[in-house]
Amino acid sequence: MDYDIDTSAPETKAGFASAERDAHDELMRTHDEFKAANDERLAALERRRGDVLLEEKVDRISDAIDLRLKRIEDYALKQARPQLDGRRAESFAGSREHKSAFEAYVRCGDAAPLRAIETKAMSIGSNPDGGYLVPVELEHAIAQRLTAISPIRAIASVREISGSIYKKPFMTTGPATGWVGETDARTQTNSPTLDALSFPAMELYAMPAATATLLDDSAVNIDEWIASEVELTFAVQEGAAFVSGDGVNKPKGFLAATAVANGSWSWGNLGYIATGTAGAFPASNPSDVLVDLIYALKAGYRQNGAFVMNRKTQAAIRKFKDTSGSYLWQPPAQAGGRASLMTFPLVEAEDMPDITASSLSIAFGDFRRGYLIVDRQGVRVLRDPYSAKPYVLFYTTKRVGGGVQDFDAIKLLKFAVS
């Protein structure tokens, strides 16, 4: 059977519901074929008659599942793209004037109307050298698109700030408390000790290029064009930083935190569970380590837990079964949903490392409580018609920060002996 499919994203929103349902139905059929082929492979292994052709068939169908999942994600992304027309702008005070001025600047380089608006609003940090703030509806559209395609942003907490840094206080020691009788003496309670986590917002940029013909075409929605051009660049850079960023001129990823054995966990570190085998799952009962990982998390976090891993790791886990013979990995229950692993949502983040010796290839936790993303208000655009003639460059910047905010909410699986 041919498992190649058309992975191109749809161009319009017409027929999205039926197209997405069809893509989901294809995924379910392919998953049924995967289970049948993998059962046949396992039966051959039990007879000690491994079949290379069966192995290749299972891998080929597994790749087809990944492609179909990608196609469903593309439909979801297209649906997340709002139409940025005049009717939407009316819901924002003064934004129609800003939108008109911004379009004049992008198309023709006329900065005077934008300069007048931002001077009237007493904006800071927006000037001919640093660029001009985009209309608020375009800023919201970029944020909405990033949430749809940036895997960690979709499950983490996101906070909007107006300054360059966000500080979150937390208690290192709380006040003394206890139970006492009605007439017993009460000892004086100690004051809580507070500390703060800092989340600086770093500059992220993209530089799409346009031709003069595109800018002269009045039928082209400039807001929509800019949002679509920068979304992928922003999402790719964010995705890598939120996972493994070192915190130098970028957010600090959760894998950049110090990882310690979960039995030795302390605040400021992330706990890990070892698989017991270097660079692999255990040969027998490999899914047991996933159970250990789930229950390493406290119940208050576990109820909102999600797995995070890349496509290759997901492909390895897709072959696992429980004691009753049911597959642990399940496709989305409905169109637009997420695949699940042991009933928990599974988030595919390609920036997670492949399975190698001592790699931290799987994360599980309540990322809404565990990881914080800070967005500084405002997206800026600087028009540059000189550096790459005959193209016009649009230097687009936004400020983003991130880091672990609750070190008890995320656990890691380490592919190592201990």
Automatic annotation (TrEMBL):
Cellular localisation: Virion
Principal localisation: virion
Matches recorded under InterPro entries: Phage_capsid, Phage_capsid-like_C
Membrane-spanning residues: none
SUPFAM superfamilies: Major capsid protein gp5
Domain Phage capsid-like C-terminal: 130-415
Record-linked NCBIfam families: major_cap_HK97
Name assigned to this protein: Phage major capsid protein
The organism of origin for this protein: Rhodopseudomonas palustris
Upper lineage: Bacteria, Pseudomonadati, Pseudomonadota, Alphaproteobacteria, Hyphomicrobiales
